Amino acid sequence: MSACGAVRPGRRLLLVLALAAWSGCRSVGEGDIPLAWPGSDAYRARVASLPISPDAARALLVAKTRDRPASYFDSTPTFLAGDEYFFTSELSRTAAPLQGFFVNGRSGAIEYRETAIAVEAHQRALPENAFTQITPIDGQSGVRFFRTFDAIRLPYRPYDEVTEAETHDLEAFIRCAFDSQGRVTRLEKFYQGRPHFTHEYRYHPNGQLREVVVRELWPREAPVRIETFDEQGRPAPMRGRTF
């Protein structure tokens, strides 16, 4: 079925859910982000033009998101958006709105992005302003250091900020990354120079916590646990899923 054809009930979750003025049936316009799907001639041609292959992009992603096992990600990109490989997971493969990791096929830079829309299979493009939240994963942008944190409720809230140099004299410290709205997206506790645990936070458009990915690393490594919450902050059905 083409993107402009009739909709089967089983595929309704994959349709555009927001940005009502935009339709998946529109032609690719100036500024739009063209999509290329695995198995298509456009996908093969675009991959051939990029210095980073799909397998290499996935390897970069796995290396940069160590709080998630390699099996968390699909083995191949869901699609190419411009020059960027989009990877999702079994948890968000049919989720709406669209969310996942984008790996730049030229620079290798990685970002976690969310949109206000969902994408139907073989859709031709995304509007250039589709992404409502972008969190850099590659590099140290937005990283700050703290002595401790408030663990009364999720997300944990770091306080008593220090410089990176000051952490060298601390037995324990906290390293955090923040998004453009000042929200904690990643919190890591270090003890005696070793990572103790990590939390990775995702948020609903209304600002409520949507997901926390928890990995306990010390004194022994435990399975990754993912807890999800609805838009009112209540635990969602997937709460406590492990990998």
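^ that was protein a. below is b, sequence first then the tokens
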Amino acid sequence: MLRAYLRPTDRSYLTAGMARTSGANDTEWRSQLAVLNVGDRTVEATATFRAAGADPIEITGAVAAGQLLAWDDVLGELFEVTDELAGSIQVDGDGPLVVTARTYNQSDVGTLGQFLPGIAPEQAMATGQTGVLSPLAGNQQFRTNVGYINLSDHSCEVRVTLHDTSGVQVGSERVRSIDPSGWKQDNDIFAVTGAGSQDHAYARRSAHQQLPDVGLRVGGRQRDRRPDHDPTGHPVGPRGGRSVPRAMGWDGVRLSVGARGPRA
């Protein structure tokens, strides 16, 4: 049982795509969260769930040295969510933790899902950086969902364009405004942007500041359109193969963008 402490702030980790909701084709989405302390002292921590249109929910507690805390249905078990919601979970601690998650389809014959890493703010990309999600697909077999998570306390804007194998832009530019510590998702980005059917494509994305410095981290997930198939993860790299710079200071905005894929 987690017990109340003052909110720690030394380390921060975010996971996006946390869900307790129904989906297409009778899918039932749930999320698992695991918090591991591999250090030699207790870490005081706070977990915060945020969803659009809902008040944040905070749970504070302690993770003992060597202890693993895990919830198979974290929104229902830890945050006691009863409505259908999806959003992000931020874990803050006064020491290092290993934060991982898995979002999966729950069925009578088992579960199928995808691993989701906890993202630290220093992994974010800086204002004006252009990164890529590759490869992506939008056709009868696959769809790509793109999620955006802002890792800071300032608003920012993200712009995404899709490109075919020759580098030509397909569809329109997608522009989203992301609230501080907020999370949004575009389901089937190829349909949203009017990009048409593409067997092989990639996305470029950039972050633009609305308030101080902006940072962006991108990761991708592609899903087979059949609900009984696993999504496939795609890490996102910077344009031109350059190494990703570290994020701006804590006063900056950090955004993580991800994509995921089977049609479900």
